[in-house]
Amino acid sequence: MxxxxxxxxxxxxxxxxxxxxxxxxxxxxxxLTALGIIIGVFAVVAMVAVGNGAKANIESQVSGLGQNMLMxxxxxxxxxxxxxxxxxxxxxxxxxxxxxxxxxxxxxxxSPEVSTTAQALANGRNWSTTIAGESSEYLLxxxxxxxxxxxxxxxxxxxxxxVGVIGSKTAHELFGPLxxxxxxxxxxxxxxxxxxxLASKGAGVGGQNQDDRIIIPFTTAMKRITGDKYVRSVxxxxxxxxxxxxxxxxxxxxxxQRHRLQPGTNDxxxxxxxxxxxxxxxxVTSTLxxxxxxxxxxxxxxxxxxxxxxxxxxxxxxTREIGIRISVGAQPRDIRTQFLIxxxxxxLLGGLIGVLLGVGMASLVAAATSFKAVVSMxxxxxxxxxxxxxxxxxxxxxxxxxxxxxxxxxxxYE
Length: 414
Hints:
Layout: H1 2-25, H2 27-63, E1 69-74, E2 78-79, E3 82-83, H3 94-103, E4 107-122, E5 125-134, H4 138-142, E6 146-149, H5 154-159, E7 163-166, H6 168-175, E8 184-187, E9 190-198, E10 213-217, H7 218-226, E11 233-238, H8 244-258, E12 269-273, H9 274-317, H10 319-327, H11 332-368, H12 377-403, H13 407-412
Parallel strand pairs: 5-10, 7-9
Antiparallel strand pairs: 1-11, 1-12, 2-3, 4-5, 4-8, 4-11, 6-9, 7-10, 8-9
Helix pairs in contact: 1-11, 2-9, 2-11, 2-12, 9-11, 9-12, 11-12
């Protein structure tokens, strides 16, 4: 038994060496044959990396909204056939926000919001920025850290004090390298003392720069800046991700009751569930990535057909060689194995080069732009697996055809 296995292993090794020598004899043709696989694998790896990068970027923006967050917006207002958009209707009140925090056990934090754009002046500079009125729990809801200073307190909210925390972009525009904490910023004619600096978050889901803002107590914003009697939205944090849908239903029921909406009447508010947004984005981007990969995978099929074509040509050219090998004792399985090894080697070599090119392209894109293409190990393993399968599938027929040649006819072939 050992002798048989040793002999079989030796024959396979010799066959493999013969196959590799045959490929080296035709380096240019072998390279051109592998080119189809190279392009196919490169396209698959690059397209999947782009899709994964887009998915990761959008998911990062969604997660940047906060943890387990529900956002309740006032409905839209229509005037003369013009829709003013979410938050424009006078439907949400401070009492609504307080009731949501007080009466729904799953709500662990809330922040009524009013906002406007205003010119901020400080340090001899001015900058148009977003002034957001929020509660003291806003940073907790948004999972937002401070690089220095501290957040205003509930006492500041109740007293409508003139304090605020500033985004990194606004801080840079108004103060440059200076520390904004303790400095005064004037919004209109009203001075605000900066008590904290927000960590950078970058662009949000809507593309707006989240770092370009000053956050002040919502009571101060309503009394001194906007004059609003209603809030534009309410941010809510739910105790756990598994309770998101339950909390959303409870919020809907409570607001409908408070707004005295009859059954069958449309809600005068809108609720955005962060988990639903994340799930929808994940599903869409996953489908997009799969579609891009499938389109790129068509070039692998073309590469496989190229391998079959060249291997058939090779069988015809080497008919006499095959006849000589059979006449000196080579078995049909040896001939079949030789041509299969040639096909698989071409395919795997093309796969390796294609993966390297795909990873290189992803790194180049990441270095040249702010977009980060994500190359997953799964896509690399898939590329090699598909390359191997293509080599076996498209190499089997030429290999079988070579193994079935009649040695006498093969020796007579010119």
